[in-house]
């Protein structure tokens, strides 16, 4: 009796353990698509395209944000515009720009290549998807544009880098050398030409359009001192007529003004409720104040008569912020300003434990969200290219090509006279050099805190003299040496791959 | 909920009373006493002096000892029973039956030698062990009264290193390491824990339910667990049923608990502000506090409005920990049972922390007939943990960050919480408001249950099958209310409390983990040859599912469920994963005349984490032992009880990495608003995959010695080992330009060599028995193969060095003058006199990244413990010391660096460097973040955390008196105990016993406990 029961039990257990199918050990991910089953439908194509764009707006949930997407403003922290309350950026400002500095030194390299990898993956596989040729061509053109954008970011900081245009695997090339900066720029321009040829000639509403690629191309050419081509490319956007200056300067920086704004040509995008950044509280709230504009920037804004504060009779040291270029008070909070981010309601640097410079960021803050706290979600798109930049790039390139002709004046004056700003036109009869200085100042105030100043200083080769004149709020002088015009590659890339380090590091 | 708890408590307290009624017995009055004399000898006929002779069932007071000739004299009733006990001998009970003269022979007890220990899938006589196994019993472990069983193992078992990372109730973060850190892979270093035969969770059981713990340290003993055993195996058995009848035991403990060590901060408001201004000045910044403000405090008569607050006194407190435990055990016929019921209530010494744990253990064993035994083990655990949502580190640093010039509640009598009473510098959030109102609640239900059947098929052939499961359900509710804060001086509304993102986050997680194994054991003795063979198969499967939801805008703070809030900005998340293992295992034991011992183990494991071709791994081990004491040439050595040499070699596996590491998948969630109306889902290929990965393997060589002498008074166990882990499953180092995460590959080798020993001495002198034990362990870790070095912010991973060796700038002193600075190598920042001088390691006259250098202290040089015990009549005393030598921690921020987020400096900063005090050991007082001192990770913040502490001391009194028996109580024990009463250390301010996962100095301190307890046996 027992023996029989035991035998039955034994059979049951034997069946359980050995009788099960071998599939007992085959387990597959339950929430992620497998690569083998991908690239089958237009949905897949759309998923992968979105994945390429996603690299622009590193989401707040990801740990790396400083210097990217909504936090592109950090780059102003190592320029003469602002002071960064960020260890990695502040170390760089103080001259600790080493292969082992970490933070942005690693992130800039790795994240741009990550973005490039998703572009390469898209371009290598998109043709496998059965979809109409026009759609496919447009999608691919967008990805070519994005890849150009990311390579351009690398080349600006590191000079020559390794170029890869295919999805990489375990069998990646062990002996690939970095290409000279000029070759990288050539690759960028090739991608941009492909993009220009196939992108829709349409206003911008979130995805790259023809003008986005043209504008970026103008910037690439300008950064490489190819002024004649740069002027022509910028002119093509102006002549295209699809874009013009915004009616309200501040609408460029907050929603809903940013939506379908005729001035914005390309941006890193966010959308509430779920695709958001923490921009408002990181910049505005008295507990954070991550980027703090410095007096050097404030002093760069002219008085309303179009003269610098050193010359203008309108400048009153007792009321230094009156009679100034209206863009100043749209860019920076000055002491005494009504300020909803602290309980007092008034910005007083002496009573603000975190404020070190006496000024606060205003540009990009959506004041309707103040007072802020950790629940505050921000959806401001960070503008990466806008029509004012096209105008000033045209002016700069044209001035370098043929001196300050009427076209140069028209372009700069258009920006100065923009609605609500109404700064007087530049005086006639400026020399080419004087015009160059005017354009540089105009770029600085127009694009202050938009993340472009540091790159401008690099390409004009004036970073060293400009930055070493700045003293940090702690009394420490900024440092910048000749080697810093190119950044070091992260030490890990030297250790793991043996990439040739940039000179001086 | 509170009501329910108090009902439970009452019930727990009353239960023994009415149960005792059930076992009430009638007792006879004491009989007439008559004198009895006698002689006690050992088995060789030699008289034994010092043997304790007592009257069994007496009041415990009547007793004597044999004299130098082994004779004794005692008064006893004619029908009484005498009990003879002596250390190292079996206790003998002898009924008098009217006799007045006795001759008694005591036999060697050799308890150590005949002990049976639990090993993988079976038991083994301790003398016949060839692998490195250490054991501890419930009695040894439960000297300390703690709520987490893992903590009890500390210092008890040589080779097992136990670190209690914090004193936070229910979240002690106990890390268990068997013989060092074995690997740097994601597979981790946690040993496998087996409870009653199936993988389980040590935290989920009540310490009182534990019967024995064995730690399998070497490959020989652990290889039968193959794939899971690389970090060692901890086997726990729970208490089984006992004798016939019903046995009831109740114990209670009350612990008066406070923090062991807290920083001594400068809490005089005026001194704080003046020092702050001074530190700012040294750090190149403008003073923060105007003189008028400081003067308000200096001249204040109103100490309520202008106080000197020590926030640590407010946030840290003395609390009462309560521990109730009731067990019912017994049996009838072939069936026995044990039921344990426990309740632990442990508030935190830091405000806002609270932990309650309810446990039920049920064990049943039934010999159905002479062939079939059937049984069940069931463990149920419910725990309820409250904690400030950002955890103890955040709560601690928020406390330290406060200035002494204001308190947590505004002084206007409104009871409002303070926003801040200091407009000049930034302080972290009000920790008292957080503790009172922003607690997250974690509730966990955990069940482990298994059934087993053992069948004796033939003589010597046994078939055992066990099937069971773990089920866990966990719910975390984290409600972040809107709480207004008010200005200290004006009493007006200032802002809302910083609670992170307001709203309610709810997370549910559950997992199911069924395990089944079946095995055959065959034992045969053929003359001098003894053979034992075991073979079995096992399957296990794990699936976890998680679901989370969040809503933001609640109309008030009263309704704390998701549906109470609007849907704007809501979020949800959910995922699941699974893995499976299938295994075959076996063991062969052979011994010849109990003298030559041999054992072989093997396990063949298949894991779902690897692809078909590399899925299966084979893990063999071999070990041998030679009991020299059994050899004829040592038989005559009477002092020698046992001497055994052991050696073993074997391989173990590890597969505890991701769940699908070999499969190519795309990362979803890389979304983007492609237009103005919607966020589109996106996907990226982010990670490379190596489809050929296989098991990570650990090879262990162990040589050991067991030694018992002097009538079993002195025992020694010592082991030396060499443990090498290779094919480590780690993320490959790939160049950044690939733009992809490196694949998980097999690469890298790590080695630990070390030794450990335990010595125990136990003796008796008359009524006094006493003993001492020392455990010692030391190991060296080395990364033998790694690839390119990796440098973290303060550690380096490089071949030839211990894993994660500290890698820091070295402080060479304090700059005394401008001239010294000018002549020194160029420092990275611009120092002033009073700042740190860094050593120019490579001699190039410039201090930069290449001057960082190795510093030791990543692992302790050794850890040790000392146990002392003594018993005299009804009293017993034990003391347990535990020490760690050579461990260092790199610690930063609040509490160690002055004015980190405005944290008041500790008192030692009064003696910081000044031009008048050039010999100071601390640099000039500065504000954290000041480049020349804290701009770079340096040895300034690497602190020696060696310590020796009195971990536990206990004084007990046991009673078996007649008057108790008449009250139905067969035994009573009361005790006083102390935990962490004193510590010897050079570590600054806080408890040196801490985890190393965070470099923040703040760490929830350990608990100092004065406890009182009682155990009643009915």
TrEMBL record, chain A:
Protein's cellular compartments: Cell outer membrane
Transmembrane segments: none
Alphabetized Pfam families for the sequence: SusD-like_3, SusD_RagB
SUPFAM superfamilies associated with the record: TPR-like
Residue ranges of every copy of the SusD-like N-terminal domain listed in the record: 40-222
Keywords: Cell outer membrane, Membrane, Signal
Highest rank taxon of the organism: Bacteria
Cellular component GO terms held in the UniProt record: cell outer membrane
InterPro entries with a match to the protein in the record: SusD-like_N, SusD_RagB_dom, TPR-like_helical_dom_sf
Family: Belongs to the SusD family.
Protein's name in the database: Putative outer membrane starch-binding protein
TrEMBL record, chain B:
A Pfam family: CarbopepD_reg_2
GO cellular component, one term: cell outer membrane
Keyword Ribosomal protein attributed: no
Domain of life where this protein originates: Bacteria
Annotated signal peptide: 1-21
Membrane topology per record: Multi-pass membrane protein
Keywords: Cell outer membrane, Membrane, Signal, Transmembrane, Transmembrane beta strand, Transport
Subcellular location field: Cell outer membrane
SUPFAM superfamilies named in the record: Carboxypeptidase regulatory domain-like, Porins
Main location: membrane
Ranges of residues in domain TonB-dependent receptor plug: 126-233
Entry's family note: Belongs to the TonB-dependent receptor family.
Name of the featured protein: TonB-linked SusC/RagA family outer membrane protein
């Amino acid at each position: 009796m027992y023996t029989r029961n035991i035998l039955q039990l034994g059979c049951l257990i034997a069946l359980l353990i050995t009788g099960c199918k071998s599939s007992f050990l085959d387990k597959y991910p339950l929430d992620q698509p497998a690569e083998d089953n991908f690239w089958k439908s237009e949905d897949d194509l759309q998923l992968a395209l979105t994945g390429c764009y996603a690299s622009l707006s590193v989401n707040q949930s990801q740990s790396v944000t400083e210097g990217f997407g909504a936090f592109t403003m950090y780059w102003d922290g190592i320029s003469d515009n602002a002071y960064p309350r960020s260890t990695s950026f502040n170390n760089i400002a103080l001259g600790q720009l080493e292969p082992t500095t970490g933070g942005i030194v690693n992130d800039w390299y790795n994240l741009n290549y990550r973005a490039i990898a998703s572009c390469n993956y898209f371009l290598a596989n998109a043709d496998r998807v059965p979809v109409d040729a026009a759609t496919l061509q447009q999608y691919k053109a967008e990805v070519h544009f994005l890849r150009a954008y990311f390579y351009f970011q690398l080349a600006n900081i590191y000079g020559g880098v390794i170029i890869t245009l295919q999805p990489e695997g375990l069998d990646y090339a062990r002996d690939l050398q970095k290409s000279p900066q000029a070759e990288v720029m050539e690759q960028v321009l090739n991608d941009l030409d492909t993009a220009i040829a196939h992108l829709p000639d349409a206003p911008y509403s979130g995805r790259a359009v023809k003008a986005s690629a043209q504008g970026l191309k103008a910037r690439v050419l300008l950064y490489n001192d190819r002024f004649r081509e740069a002027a022509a490319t910028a002119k093509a956007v102006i002549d295209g007529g699809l874009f013009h200056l915004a009616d309200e300067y501040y609408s460029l920086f907050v929603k809903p003004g940013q939506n379908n704004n005729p001035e914005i040509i390309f941006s890193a995008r966010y959308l509430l409720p779920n695709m958001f950044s923490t921009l408002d509280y990181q910049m505005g709230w008295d507990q954070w104040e991550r980027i703090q504009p410095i007096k050097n920037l404030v002093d760069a804004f002219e008085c309303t008569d179009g003269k610098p504060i050193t010359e203008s009779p309108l400048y009153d040291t007792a009321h230094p912020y009156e009679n100034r270029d209206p863009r100043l008070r749209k860019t920076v909070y000055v002491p005494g300003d009504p300020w909803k981010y602290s309980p007092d309601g008034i910005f007083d640097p002496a009573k603000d434990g975190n404020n070190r410079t006496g000024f606060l960021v205003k540009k990009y803050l959506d004041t309707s969200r103040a007072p802020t706290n950790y629940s505050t979600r921000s959806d401001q798109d960070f503008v990466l290219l806008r029509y004012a930049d096209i105008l000033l790039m045209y002016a700069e390139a044209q001035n370098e090509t043929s001196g300050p002709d009427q076209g140069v004046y028209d372009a700069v004056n258009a920006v100065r006279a923009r609605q609500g700003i109404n700064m007087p036109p530049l005086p006639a009869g400026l020399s080419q050099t004087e015009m160059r200085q005017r354009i540089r100042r105009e770029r600085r105030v127009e694009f202050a805190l938009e993340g472009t100043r540091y790159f401008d200083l690099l390409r004009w080769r004036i970073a060293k003299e400009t930055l070493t004149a700045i003293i940090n709020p702690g009394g420490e002088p900024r440092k910048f040496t000749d080697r810093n015009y190119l950044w070091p590659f992260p030490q890990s890339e030297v250790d793991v791959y043996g990439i040739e380090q940039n000179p001086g590091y | 909920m509170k009501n329910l708890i108090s009902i439970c408590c009452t019930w727990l307290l009353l239960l023994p009373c009415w149960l005792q009624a059930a076992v009430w017995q009638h007792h006879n009055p004491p009989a007439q006493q008559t004198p009895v004399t006698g002689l006690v000898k050992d088995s060789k006929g030699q008289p034994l002096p010092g043997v304790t002779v007592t009257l069994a069932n007496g009041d415990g007071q009547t007793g004597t000892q044999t004299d130098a000739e082994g004779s004794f004299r005692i008064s006893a009733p004619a029908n009484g029973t005498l009990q003879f006990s002596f250390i190292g001998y079996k206790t003998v009970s002898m009924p008098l039956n009217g006799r007045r003269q006795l001759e008694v022979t005591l036999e060697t007890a050799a308890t150590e030698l005949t002990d049976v220990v639990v090993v993988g899938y079976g038991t083994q006589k301790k003398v016949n062990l060839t692998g490195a196994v250490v054991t501890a019993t419930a009695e040894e472990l439960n000297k300390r009264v703690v709520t987490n069983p893992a903590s009890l193992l500390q210092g008890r078992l040589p080779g097992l290193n136990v670190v209690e990372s914090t004193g936070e109730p229910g979240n002690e973060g106990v890390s268990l390491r068997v013989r060092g850190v074995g690997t740097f892979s994601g597979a981790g270093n946690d040993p496998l824990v087996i409870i009653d035969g199936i993988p389980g969770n040590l935290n989920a059981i009540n310490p009182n339910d534990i019967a024995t713990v064995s730690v399998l340290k070497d490959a020989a003993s652990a290889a039968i667990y193959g794939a899971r055993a690389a970090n060692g195996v901890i086997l726990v058995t729970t208490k089984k049923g006992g004798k016939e009848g019903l046995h009831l035991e109740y114990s209670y403990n009350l612990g008066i608990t406070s923090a062991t060590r807290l920083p001594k901060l400068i809490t005089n408001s005026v001194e704080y502000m003046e020092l702050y201004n001074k530190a700012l000045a040294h750090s190149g910044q403008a003073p923060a506090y105007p003189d008028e403000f400081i003067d308000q405090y200096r001249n204040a008569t109103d100490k309520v409005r202008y106080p000197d607050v020590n926030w640590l006194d407010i946030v840290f407190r003395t609390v009462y920990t309560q521990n109730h435990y009731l067990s019912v055990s017994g049996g009838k016929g072939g069936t026995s049972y044990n039921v344990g019921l426990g309740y632990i209530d442990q508030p935190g010494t830091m405000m806002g922390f609270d932990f309650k744990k309810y446990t039920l253990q049920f064990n049943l064993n039934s010999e159905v007939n002479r062939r079939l035994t059937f049984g069940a083990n069931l463990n149920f655990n419910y725990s309820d943990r409250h904690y400030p949502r950002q955890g103890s580190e955040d709560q601690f640093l928020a406390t330290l960050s406060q200035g002494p010039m204001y308190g947590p509640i505004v002084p206007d009598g409104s009871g409002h919480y303070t926003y801040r009473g200091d407009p000049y510098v930034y302080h972290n959030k009000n920790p008292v408001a957080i503790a009172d109102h922003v607690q997250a609640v974690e509730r966990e239900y955990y069940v482990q249950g298994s059934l087993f059947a053992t069948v004796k098929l033939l003589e010597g052939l046994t078939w055992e099958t066990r099937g069971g499961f773990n089920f866990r359900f966990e719910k975390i509710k984290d409600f972040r209310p809107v709480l207004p804060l008010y200005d200290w001086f004006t009493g007006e509304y200032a802002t809302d409390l910083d609670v992170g993102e307001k709203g309610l986050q709810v997370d549910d997680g559950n997992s199911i983990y069924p395990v089944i194994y079946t095995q055959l054991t065959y034992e045969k003795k053929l003359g001098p040859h003894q053979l034992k063979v075991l073979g079995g198969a096992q399957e296990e499967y794990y699936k976890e599912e998680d679901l989370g939801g969040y809503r933001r805008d609640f109309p008030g703070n009263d309704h704390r469920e998701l549906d109470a809030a609007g849907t704007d900005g809501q979020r949800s998340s959910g995922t699941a994963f699974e893995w499976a293992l299938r295994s075959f295992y076996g063991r062969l034991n052979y011994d010849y005349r109990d003298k030559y011992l041999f054992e072989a183990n093997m396990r063949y494991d298949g894991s779902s984490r690897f692809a078909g071709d590399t899925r299966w791994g084979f893990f063999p081990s071999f070990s041998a032992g030679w009991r020299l004491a059994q050899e004829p040439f040592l038989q005559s050595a009477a002092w020698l009880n046992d001497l055994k040499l052991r050696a073993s070699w074997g391989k173990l596996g590890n597969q505890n990495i991701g769940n699908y590491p070999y499969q190519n998948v795309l990362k979803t969630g890389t979304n983007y608003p492609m237009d103005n109306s919607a966020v589109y889902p996106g996907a990226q290929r982010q990670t490379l995959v190596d489809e050929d990965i296989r098991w990570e393997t650990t090879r262990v060589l162990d040589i050991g010695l067991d030694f018992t002498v002097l009538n079993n008074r002195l025992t020694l166990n010592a082991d030396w080992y060499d443990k090498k882990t290779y094919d480590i499953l780690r993320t490959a180092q790939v160049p950044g330009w690939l733009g992809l995460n490196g694949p998980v590959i097999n690469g890298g080798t790590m080695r630990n060599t070390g030794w450990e020993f335990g010595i125990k001495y136990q003796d008796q002198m008359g009524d006094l028995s006493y003993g001492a034990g020392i455990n010692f362990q030391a190991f060296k870790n080395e990364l033998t193969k790694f690839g390119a070095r990796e440098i973290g912010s303060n550690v380096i991973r490089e071949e030839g060095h211990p894993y994660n060796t500290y890698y820091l700038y070295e402080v060479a002193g304090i700059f005394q003058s401008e001239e010294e600075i000018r002549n020194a190598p160029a420092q990275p920042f611009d120092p002033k006199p009073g700042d740190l001088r860094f050593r120019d390691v490579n001699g190039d006259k410039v201090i930069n990244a290449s001057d960082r250098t190795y510093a030791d202290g990543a692992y302790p040089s050794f850890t040790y413990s000392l146990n002392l015990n003594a018993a005299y009549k009804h009293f017993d005393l034990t003391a347990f010391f535990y020490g760690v030598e050579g461990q260092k921690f790199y610690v930063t921020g609040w509490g160690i660096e002055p004015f980190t987020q405005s944290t008041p400096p500790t008192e030692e900063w009064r003696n910081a460097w000044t031009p008048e005090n050039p010999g100071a050991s601390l640099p000039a007082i500065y504000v954290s973040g000041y480049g020349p001192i804290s701009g770079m990770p340096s040895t300034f913040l690497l602190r020696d955390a060696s310590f020796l502490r009195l971990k536990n001391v206990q004084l007990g009194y046991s009673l078996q008196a007649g008057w108790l028996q008449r009250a139905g109580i067969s035994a009573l024990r009361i005790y006083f105990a102390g935990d962490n009463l004193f510590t010897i250390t050079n570590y600054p301010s806080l408890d040196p016993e801490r985890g190393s996962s965070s470099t923040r100095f703040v760490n929830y301190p350990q608990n100092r406990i004065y406890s009182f307890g009682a155990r009643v046996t009915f």
